[in-house]
Amino acid sequence: MTTEELAAAKEGLAAKEAAHEDWIAQSVRCLREKGWEGVTADAGGLSYETLPRDQAGAFTDDMAACEDAVGPGPYDEPLTRAEVAVVYDRWVDAKACLEGLGHEISEPPSVNVFIDDYLHGDDGPWSPFAELPAGVALDRVKQTCPE
User: Fold this and answer.
1) How far is Cα 87 from Cα 10, in angstroms, rounded to an integer?
2) Could you tell me the superkingdom of the organism this chain comes from (predicted)?
3) Minimal CA–CA distance to 137: which of 147, 128, 129?
4) Which DSSP category does 123 fall into?
5) What pLDDT does 123 receive?
6) Is the pLDDT of residue 31 over 80?
7) Residue 104 confidence (pLDDT) above 90
8) Do residues 80 and 15 lie in contact, with contact meaning Cβ atoms separated by under 8 Å?
9) Which of 55, 82, 131, 138 could pair with 9 in a Cys bridge, judged by C-beta atoms 3.0 to 4.6 Å apart?
10) What is the mean predicted confidence (pLDDT) over 34-50?
């Protein structure tokens, strides 16, 4: 990939990330307007309090209505190879940061293997965050070592 392609990919990915944050905020707002006060934005997604079983169907219906109202998320379109290469560079940087916090993280694959796994792999790509031990507060870690 050329320097220009990577620069354009960084801009495109930044725009998708900003749009995703807005999409999450709109989704939370919609669900709260429907009475689901326990819904919050968490680690780039939605987090829900434990629901009583008898409310699961109503929640599912309201979630579907909010998805219709808010529209598709910006990540419904797959990332380009260049955008995935940007993610790879970020995660390699995050690996060093996480190791600086005392975590042991495996070596990343080559960028081409990472891109193929990200776009086509059944098990997903290598991620330094996936190797953190259970119980680590991911949101707090990501404040120090961004994704």
Assistant:
1) 9
2) Bacteria
3) 129
4) S
5) 84
6) yes
7) yes
8) no
9) 82
10) 79
Res 21: pLDDT = 87
Q: Which two three-digit tokens encode residue 139?
A: 């949101």
pTM of the model: 0.74
- % helix, strand, coil for the chain, step of 5: 65, 5, 35
Q: How far apart are CA 138 and CA 2, in angstroms?
A: 33
- Token couple for 33: 């307007």
The three-state DSSP-derived secondary structure of 5-36 is HHHHHHHHHHHHHHHHHHHHHHHHHHHHHCCC
Q: 46 has which bridge partners? A: 41
Residue 137 has which token pair?
Answer: 């507060």
Taking residue 28's Cβ as centre, other Cβ atoms within 10 Å add up to: 19
Find, among 6, 5, 8, 21, the residue nearest to 147 by Cα: 21
Residues 20, 75 contacting (CB under 8 angstroms): yes
pLDDT reading at 95 higher than 90: yes
Question: Distance from CA of residue 72 to its chain's centroid?
Answer: 15
Q: Would you say residue 43 has pLDDT above 70?
A: no
Tokens of 44: 């780039």
Predicted confidence at residue 113, as pLDDT, reads 95
